[in-house]
C-alpha cells in the first residue's frame, strides 16, 4: 500500500449473526465502536471514514431452508453487500477495517479484496477454530464454521453468488494461528492441504513471535494480505464476550505481540475483527481489548 494511502482506514460494520445460534454478535460492531475505535485510530494518525453497517436480517424473520447450512442464502446476500463496500474502500485507497458480527462475514471481506485485486490473496486467520467445514461436513450447519472453506473455493455449488468473487484465497497462502478446536473433517483436510497451522500447542513450544513470523512469510505474495481476527482466539479470561469460547487461548500480551508483528511486517492491507458478543461480556472488556488489538495491528507502538 502506498504511503499516501497508508493512513486511510474505512470502518465497515457487518452485524450479521445468522452464522451461528447464539444471539448477541450482531451488537459487536456497535460495542467496538463505543469502546473508542475511531478515536484510538485518530490518535495514531489515521484518517478514518465511517461507512456504517451492512444490512443484515434478523433470524426470527427467516426460515431455515437447509439445516446443513443454516440461513446460507441470506448470509451470501449480506456477504455480497459487504464485498462491494470492501472493494470500494480498496479502490479509493483506504484500508478496510471490518467489524463483525460472526465469522461468516469473512467470506464477504475476502471476496471484496479479491475483486479489488483482480486475483486471490493470502490470509492470516487468528482463531480458536479452523472454519474449514463445508455444509456436508459441518456437525452444526452453522455457517460461521465455513467461511474459510468457502473463500478457498471448496463446495462451490453451495457458495456461488453473483456478488462474490470466489475463490478469494490461494490455498498455499493461508496460515492459521491459535487453533485449539478442530472438527474431524477439518483435521483430515488440513493433513493434506498446503496451509500452515500453528496450534496453541505449537505456540507453547515455539513462542508466538516465531509462529506469527512464519505465518506472515507463508501468506505474503501478490493480490492482498488480510488478517482475520476472531476474538475467541484469546483466552476467555482475556476476552469473555465471545460466542464460542475455548479455554487455553492467547494471552493478552501474546495477542498484542501477534498484532504488533503483523504491523511491523508492512504486509497488511486489510483487517477484520469478529465474534464480539456484548451480551456475554463483562463491562465491554472484549470490545475494549478489540480496539487495542486493532491499534496494535495498525501500527501503535509503545515508544
TrEMBL record:
<dbReference type="GO" id="GO:0004053">
    <property type="term" value="F:arginase activity"/>
</dbReference>
<feature type="binding site">
    <location>
        <position position="230"/>
    </location>
    <ligand>
        <name>Mn(2+) 1</name>
    </ligand>
</feature>
<feature type="binding site">
    <location>
        <position position="129"/>
    </location>
    <ligand>
        <name>Mn(2+) 1</name>
    </ligand>
</feature>
<keyword id="KW-0056">Arginine metabolism</keyword>
<feature type="binding site">
    <location>
        <position position="127"/>
    </location>
    <ligand>
        <name>Mn(2+) 1</name>
    </ligand>
</feature>
<dbReference type="GO" id="GO:0006525">
    <property type="term" value="P:arginine metabolic process"/>
</dbReference>
<dbReference type="Pfam" id="PF00491">
    <property type="entry name" value="Arginase"/>
</dbReference>
<feature type="binding site">
    <location>
        <position position="232"/>
    </location>
    <ligand>
        <name>Mn(2+) 2</name>
    </ligand>
</feature>
<protein>
    <recommendedName>
        <fullName>Arginase</fullName>
        <ecNumber>3.5.3.1</ecNumber>
    </recommendedName>
</protein>
<dbReference type="GO" id="GO:0005737">
    <property type="term" value="C:cytoplasm"/>
</dbReference>
<dbReference type="InterPro" id="IPR020855">
    <property type="entry name" value="Ureohydrolase_Mn_BS"/>
</dbReference>
<feature type="binding site">
    <location>
        <position position="131"/>
    </location>
    <ligand>
        <name>Mn(2+) 1</name>
    </ligand>
</feature>
<dbReference type="InterPro" id="IPR023696">
    <property type="entry name" value="Ureohydrolase_dom_sf"/>
</dbReference>
<dbReference type="GO" id="GO:0030145">
    <property type="term" value="F:manganese ion binding"/>
</dbReference>
<feature type="binding site">
    <location>
        <position position="103"/>
    </location>
    <ligand>
        <name>Mn(2+) 1</name>
    </ligand>
</feature>
<keyword id="KW-0479">Metal-binding</keyword>
<keyword id="KW-0464">Manganese</keyword>
<keyword id="KW-0378">Hydrolase</keyword>
<dbReference type="InterPro" id="IPR014033">
    <property type="entry name" value="Arginase"/>
</dbReference>
<dbReference type="GO" id="GO:0000050">
    <property type="term" value="P:urea cycle"/>
</dbReference>
<dbReference type="InterPro" id="IPR006035">
    <property type="entry name" value="Ureohydrolase"/>
</dbReference>
<comment type="pathway">
    <text>Nitrogen metabolism; urea cycle; L-ornithine and urea from L-arginine: step 1/1.</text>
</comment>
<comment type="similarity">
    <text>Belongs to the arginase family.</text>
</comment>
Amino acid at each position: 500500500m502506498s504511503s499516501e494511502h497508508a493512513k486511510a482506514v474505512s470502518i465497515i460494520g457487518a452485524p450479521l449473526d445468522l452464522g451461528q445460534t447464539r444471539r448477541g454478535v450482531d451488537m459487536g460492531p456497535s460495542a467496538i465502536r463505543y469502546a473508542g475505535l475511531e478515536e484510538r485510530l485518530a490518535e495514531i494518525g489515521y484518517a478514518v471514514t465511517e461507512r456504517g453497517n451492512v444490512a443484515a436480517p434478523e433470524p426470527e424473520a427467516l426460515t431455515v431452508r437447509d439445516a446443513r447450512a443454516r440461513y446460507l442464502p441470506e448470509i451470501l446476500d449480506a456477504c455480497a453487500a459487504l464485498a462491494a463496500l470492501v472493494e470500494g474502500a480498496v479502490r479509493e485507497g483506504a484500508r478496510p477495517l471490518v467489524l463483525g458480527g460472526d465469522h461468516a462475514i469473512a467470506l464477504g471481506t475476502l471476496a471484496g479484496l479479491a475483486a479489488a485485486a483482480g486475483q486471490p490473496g493470502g490470509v492470516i486467520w487468528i482463531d480458536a477454530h479452523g472454519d474449514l467445514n463445508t455444509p456436508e461436513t459441518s456437525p452444526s450447519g452453522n455457517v460461521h464454521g465455513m467461511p474459510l472453506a468457502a473463500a478457498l473455493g471448496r463446495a462451490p455449488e453451495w457458495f456461488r453468488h453473483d456478488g462474490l468473487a470466489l475463490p478469494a484465497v490461494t490455498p498455499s497462502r493461508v496460515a492459521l494461528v491459535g487453533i485449539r478446536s478442530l472438527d474431524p473433517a477439518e483435521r483430515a483436510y488440513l493433513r493434506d492441504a498446503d496451509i500452515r497451522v500453528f496450534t496453541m500447542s505449537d505456540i507453547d513450544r515455539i513462542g508466538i513471535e516465531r509462529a506469527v513470523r512464519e505465518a506472515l512469510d507463508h501468506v505474503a505474495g501478490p493480490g492482498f494480505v488480510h488478517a482475520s481476527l476472531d476474538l475467541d482466539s484469546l483466552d476467555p479470561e482475556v476476552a469473555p464476550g465471545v460466542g464460542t469460547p475455548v479455554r487455553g487461548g492467547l494471552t493478552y500480551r501474546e495477542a498484542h505481540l501477534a498484532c504488533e508483528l503483523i504491523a511491523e511486517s508492512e504486509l497488511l492491507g486489510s483487517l477484520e475483527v469478529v465474534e464480539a458478543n456484548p451480551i456475554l461480556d463483562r463491562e465491554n472488556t472484549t470490545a475494549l481489548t478489540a480496539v487495542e488489538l486493532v491499534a496494535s495491528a495498525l501500527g501503535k507502538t509503545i515508544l
